[in-house]
Structures are given as structure tokens and as C-alpha cells.
Amino acid sequence: MAGTRDSGGAVGAVGRRTVIAAAGGAGLAAAVLTACGGSDGSGAQGGAGSAGTDAGTVIASTADIPEGGGAVVGGLVVTQPRAGEFKAFSAKCTHAGCAVKDVVDGVIRCPCHGSAFDASDGTVKTGPATAPLPATAIAVKDGSIVLA
Ligand code: FES
């Protein structure tokens, strides 16, 4: 990137400004969605806020949440631990604030340091996290999972 080109310096400067300006909006969105990396994890909460916190807000379709698995939607991880039973928790890992990622075989996993949480109640199955993922009240209406 730090090239040795000596022509077009002014154009390069304008180009950089343009890139920075263009990346501003997208970069902010990426920062909110990519909670992992911030030690305080405040980005994860921002993601939850941007997804809406009002009762009735649709957060996912039941068809998108596999039985025994789940999906991270904004700042929430939505799971289906048993057929037809849906749960939602904060996707912000209670260890250091990364966003949890995978939900497989009833376990929510954090990619940062390996913590694992029970997909049915958010409790810690494997550390280093010691606190459960906070639950979020949801309801199922007409095939959609909504905030309760
Ligand atoms: S932040 Fe999730 S295990 Fe460390």
C-alpha cells in the first residue's frame, strides 16, 4: 500500500479522502456487527439496539433457526434447543465481549477463547466465561420470532 509511486500524489490524496469518506458509513455498520475484537464489547450492545428493542419487532423467521442450532441476529443469538421451542440471548460473550458465533448440537460457541453456552438456557458449559448469556424475552407469531 505504501507504494513508491511519485506521480499523481494529489490524486492519491483525494483518493484516500474519498475512500475514507466512503468507508465511514459502511465501516461503522461493520464495527457494530462485528462485536469481536473490542475488549469491552460495547459494539454487541449497539448491534442489539440497532436491531430494535420494541416488543413485536421481528428478529428472525422460525425457518431460519435450525432445531438444535441457532443463528446470530444483530446483537442476539436465537436458538431452537428442541423442536418448536425458541430462545434468545445476548450474543455478547460474557467473558470478554466477543460476539458468539456458532450454535451446534445445542451449544452456543464463542470463537474468541472457546467459551460454550447451553442453547436452552444460556448457562456456561465451558469457560473461560463464568456468567450465562442474558436471556431476551421472545415470542413466536405466524412463523416469526418477535421481541416480547
Ligand atoms: S470473549 Fe468469548 S470466550 Fe473470550
Q: Tell me about the biggest sheet?
A: 4 strands, antiparallel
Tell me the domain tally: 2
CATH level-four homologous superfamily name of the largest domain: Rieske [2Fe-2S] iron-sulphur domain
Strand content: 25-35%
Briefly note the CATH topology name of the largest domain: Rieske Iron-sulfur Protein
> What radius of gyration results from the CA coordinates?
19 Å
Helix-strand topology string: HHEEEEEEEEEE
Reported CATH architecture of the largest domain: 3-layer Sandwich
Which segments are poorly predicted (pLDDT under 50) over 5 or more consecutive residues?
1-51
What binds here, in terms of ligands, is: FE2/S2 (inorganic) cluster
User: How do the strands of the widest beta sheet line up side by side?
Assistant: 5-6-7-8
- Morphology: globular
- By oligomeric state, this entry counts as single chain
Helix proportion: 10-25%
Tell me the structural class: alpha+beta
Number of helices in the DSSP assignment: 2
CATH class of the largest domain: Mainly Beta
Number of strands: 10
Distance between the termini: 49 Å
- What's the pLDDT, averaged over the residues? 76
What does it look like?
This protein is of the alpha+beta class. 23% of the residues lie in helices and 28% in strands. It has two helices and ten strands; from the N terminus they run H-H-E-E-E-E-E-E-E-E-E-E. The strands form three sheets. A four-stranded antiparallel sheet has the order 5-6-7-8, with no helix packed on it. The radius of gyration is 19 Å and the shape is globular. The relative contact order is 0.15. Mean pLDDT is 76; it is low at 1-51. FE2/S2 (inorganic) cluster (FES) binds at residues 93, 95-98, 110, 112-115, 128-129. Residues 57-147 form the Rieske domain.
